[in-house]
Design a protein that fits this description.
By secondary structure, the protein is of the alpha/beta class. The chain has a single domain, classed as TIM Barrel (Alpha-Beta Barrel), CATH 3.20.20. 39% of the residues lie in helices and 13% in strands. It contains 15 helices and 14 strands. The chain has helices spanning 15-18, 41-45, 68-81, 93-96, 107-122, 138-144, 151-166, 187-191, 201-226, 248-270, 275-283, 292-300, 349-363, 389-407, 457-467; strands spanning 8-12, 86-90, 126-132, 173-177, 231-237, 241-243, 305-309, 314-316, 339-340, 346-347, 367-371, 413-419, 439-441, 453-455. Strands 1-2-3-4-5-7-11-12 form an eight-stranded parallel barrel, surrounded by four helices. Helix 3 (68-81) packs parallel to helix 5, helix 9 (201-226) packs across helix 12 and helix 13 runs parallel beside helix 14. The two termini are 16 Å apart. The structure holds 2-(hydroxymethyl)phenyl 6-O-phosphono-beta-D-glucopyranoside (P53).
């Protein structure tokens, strides 16, 4: 009953949103460093505004983030105190291969992650490593135009080989690309792509997607050769689309919206392009170059498990003739039955169970929830304590539904990591004010603050959830 005995409870972060130290330890610039907070952010992350170096008058929150690079020991000790069984973090590509195409890896970068991994293992925390969480070396963006270029597959191979060899036996769970489908909505942040006037954006996106899918399969092949005990998964920004009404046109619109994302996992988990996507790409005349070798590679190297993020469900409607809400990057119509967060994301705990079921039914492989949580405004007292009952409430309801999916529906679930167990920089908006943590960090949107860490009310609550393996909620 309930969650498996070895269920992996923990939290998840991403290098650029937590580490800072953007120019230390031999690290070079990446796309994620160049995404400013404020009105230009969306133009930059979507590749409409080309930015290849820091610009005057902009603030770049990822430069320093919450300085985890220098404080990881303190942070991991706090995770250990909560009883984490797993810690999901990502590798900054430019710490390992600063230019992406270097011949030799940067030892200082490898050493940093080795120390981080050892620190986790010291507390029996399983590291779950995202190889790339939106990270892309700016040198490769300049020289090759991002993932649109097939050459990038080789550089990615070089990166994963280095990591798999160095951390062989220490890391048992790997993810190839964070939220691989984010390339559809934020192609610069997600894949180092930016566009020139008159280019066919969709065509470039699908060519880049194909290269990522091939690179992901290559990573899977390489990992199996190096460490056959380790497991590798894909990672999707999930959250099912519902039809706005039972009108068949709305129902079909929901199918089409869902397919935009499931397409990625269809390839990564089943090993071939689904027919609906081939038809669409042919119809639009944007079919990427897919070689026989690519097909073989994709088919022979499917993922061991499927991981995903879930924040909210979405709603699709035939023809976008009513106002679209774009707060979550993925477009959605407002759901009149749900409440919304301060950032206008629908709160839908049952939608979590629905999504878990939908994905499990579709792929029949073990699942791993690697992001879930509430981004909210916290008001700390003078000691940095936050009474965050709203966060506890959100997580309680989501974990309850996750439990139903496991206990009542039989979904095979490996673990659950909440997003941002310690406050960090938002990917969507660049804000610090949008907080997810059990641990408060004294820093504001523009980098003011002492960076002091303090426990919120939810800290002890989550500790008890883990201690009771999800019985105490
Ligand atoms: P934030 C939206 C926009 C960007 C990234 O998001 C996203 C999403 C959610 O679908 O995905 C993940 O910080 C991502 C994390 C991110 C988290 O959602 O905009 O993997 O990097 O921080 C939460 O509130």
């Amino acid at each position: 009953m309930g969650f498996r005995k070895d269920f992996l409870w923990g939290g998840a972060t991403a290098a650029n949103q937590i580490e800072g130290a953007y120019n230390e330890g031999g690290r070079a610039l990446a796309n994620v460093d160049l995404c400013p907070i404020g009105i230009n952010r969306f133009a930059v992350i979507s590749g409409r505004k080309k930015v290849l170096e820091f610009e005057e008058g902009e603030f770049y929150p990822a430069k320093n983030s919450i300085d985890h690079y220098h404080r990881y020991k303190e942070d991991i000790a706090l995770f250990a105190e909560m009883g984490f069984k797993v810690y999901r973090f990502s590798i900054a590509w430019t710490r390992i291969y600063p230019n992406g195409d270097d011949e030799i890896p940067n030892e200082e970068g490898l050493k940093f992650y080795e120390n981080l991994i050892n620190e986790c293992l010291k507390y029996n925390i399983e590291p779950l490593v995202t190889i790339t969480h939106f990270d892309f070396p700016i040198n490769l963006a300049k020289k090759y135009g991002g993932w649109r270029n097939r050459k990038i597959i080789e550089f990615y191979e070089r990166l994963v080989k280095t990591l798999f060899i160095r951390f062989n036996g220490k890391v048992k769970y790997w993810l190839t690309f964070n939220e691989i489908n984010v390339i559809l909505v934020a192609p610069f942040m997600g894949a180092g792509l930016y566009f020139e006037e008159g280019e066919n954006i969709e065509k470039i996106q699908y060519q880049a997607i194909h290269h990522e899918l091939v690179a992901s399969a290559k990573a899977t092949k390489i990992l199996r050769e190096i460490d056959s005990d380790a497991k590798i998964g894909c990672m999707l920004a999930a959250g099912s689309y519902y039809p706005l009404t039972p009108k068949p046109e709305d129902v079909f619109a929901a199918i089409e919206e869902n397919r935009k994302s499931y397409f990625f996992v269809d390839v990564q988990s089943r090993g071939y392009y689904p027919r609906y996507k081939l038809k669409e790409l042919e119809r639009k005349n944007i079919l990427p170059e897919i070689t026989e070798e690519d097909k073989k590679l994709l088919f022979e190297n499917t993922v061991d498990f499927i991981s995903f993020s879930y924040y909210s469900s979405k709603v699709a409607k035939y023809k976008n003739d009513i106002e679209l809400k774009n707060s979550n990057l993925f477009s959605t119509v407002k759901n009149p039955y749900l409440k919304y967060t301060d950032w206008d994301w629908a709160i839908d705990p049952l939608g979590f169970r629905i999504t878990l079921n939908e994905i499990y039914d579709r792929y029949q492989k073990p699942l791993f929830v690697v992001e879930n949580g509430l981004g909210a405004i916290d008001v700390p007292d003078e000691n940095g304590y936050v009474d965050d009952d709203y966060r506890i409430d959100y997580l309680r309801q989501h974990i309850k539904n996750m439990k139903d999916a496991v206990e009542l529906d039989g979904v095979d679930l490996l673990g659950y990591t909440t997003w941002g167990p310690i406050d960090l920089v938002s990917a969507g908006t660049g804000e610090m004010k949008k907080r997810y943590g059990f641990i408060y960090v004294d820093r504001d949107n523009y980098g003011n603050g002492t960076l002091k860490r303090s426990k919120k009310k939810s800290f002890n609550w989550y500790k008890n959830v883990i201690l009771s393996n999800g019985e105490y909620l």
